[in-house]
Amino acid sequence: MTRAVSTWRVFLIGFMGAGKTTTGKALAHRLGWKFYDLDDVIEDREGKSVAQIFASSGEAAFRRMESAALRTLLQDVVTPGNLIVALGGGTFVQPENRDALEQADAITVLLEAPLNELRRRCELDGKKRPLAQQAEKFDRLFEERSAAYEHARFKVDTLGKDANEIAVEIEQLVKAVLKVEVRK
Ligand code: S3P
User: Fold this and answer.
1) Domain 9-177, what fold?
2) Pocket test for ligand 1, best of 129, 134, 137, 139 (most atoms within 8 A of CB)
3) Which residues, given as ranges, of the chain have pLDDT below 70?
């Protein structure tokens, strides 16, 4: 199979608190690739924080911005080079985003952790998350999203590991994909 694009893109998926950003930075550092955090891309484009967008425009508007920002990261001409991207916790839940990632032959990696650990990490990391304000909603979203997350190409258990250890595991997965794909 010939790839439609000549660069490699790794997308980190997972619930809020999964460690997508910290792991993504560590992985980008190891591979010498560029790193993007999708929430940061949206905030830069809109000139507002994610929390402000949710408050002023609502979640549906945020999801549209999120899909648009994702598309920019899938286009070689707009963001050239090999990339590591940390998605938001809800990005991969939208079927159109999953389709776009699949069509772009992206490498998708799910970072897994149990619910109580995700809750703990969200409380610690200080990021303002509109969907983590109510414990019940947080727990419900975790259940609702698990089926969508199953579509990821790879899964990595993050419990008890630091960002660099997780990055080492993903680096091995990515290098194996690159070897196989390049041979085709
Ligand atoms: C969201 C997760 C957030 C951010 C927004 C919505 C979600 O990103 O995109 O608050 O729907 O789970 P993190 O997963 O990086 O916290």
Assistant:
1) Rossmann fold (3.40.50)
2) 129
3) 1-5
